[in-house]
Amino acid sequence: MNSKTRVLSALRRKGLPDRIPLQFDLGRALLEKFGAKYGIPVSYSPSYYDDLMYRISANDLRTAMGSDCVVVGGGLPAGYSHDRTDDGCIVNEFGMVMRQGPLYMDVVGCPLADVTSADEVARFPFPDPCAAGRMEHARRDIERFREDYFIIGDIELTMFEMAWHMVGLEKFMVDLVSRAAYVGVLLDRCMAFSIGIGKQLVALGVDAVWTGDDFGAQNGMLISPRLWRSVFKPRFREVFAELKAANPEVLICYHCDGAIAPILDDLIEIGLEVFNPVQPNVPGHEAAALKSNFGDRLSFWGAIDQQQLLPFGTPEEIEAEVKAKIESLGQGGGYLCSPAHIVQADTSVENMEAFIAAVKRGA
Question: What pTM was estimated for this model as a whole?
């Protein structure tokens, strides 16, 4: 098997792959270290939302390190450059003022912070998902890797996270619960942008589309399952249906950090096929229980702890955890092994290499 057929076999649960497939994302510090070690300059692909850049960059390096997957996404329009404020922040296409933090770009100014009406949102100038040049990097990597590697098109921040970044989290959450009139209009505009990006990626030939919004925390969901079902379930149903209509063979993946077991049945009902990142050590995400309850209807991608295990564990502990997850989630297929988040600078090169080696050995 090559990487592409290995991942397809696993995630479609159509026979067993020759080994459990592997995927990982690295933050800038580790990308630079591994780039120097492998002698492969890090190629950064800009994204319409800056922090998605780490998902869609350095595919040549990550495949050289052993990843079976390539991740691509929407970039910036041809000839576009961010406006800058006097204090060095950028202003992105959505009007968010963003400042570089220790790890990520922090939103320090929300363009709709004072929004009160649906009309304000309807008149707000959203970027064009189909702007010329936006798919240049995605097209390049798809053409290079599509025969040998599993290609994932990334449209995370599908609607909820994009919306609250434009308004501010506290205000958006209060207005969501109180059913402010503008909320639905804003979610629909964010959703339409994501569908526009996703359908272009499908047309270019990705094998899967990675949707996502973080509705979970360490101890439970950020909003009630009932509110999620009322507001977000029908919209994600529409997203999944639009992508499947563009290509019935494309796999539908969904990223949601935190504890979201209460809505997994709902996500499967509306078309989810691959759940990511299967964050460990949160209620309802015990690997054996997830496999038992959902494994005949759902594949899993992730599940390796990057909060404690990868930064602070020993190589032996990492190998033992990889083995345990493969034995539980990989039984009968249905598992793509990966850290449950972009791996940060607190993880050593040696521990990252121990993780990769353990997956390739099948632990």
Answer: 0.97
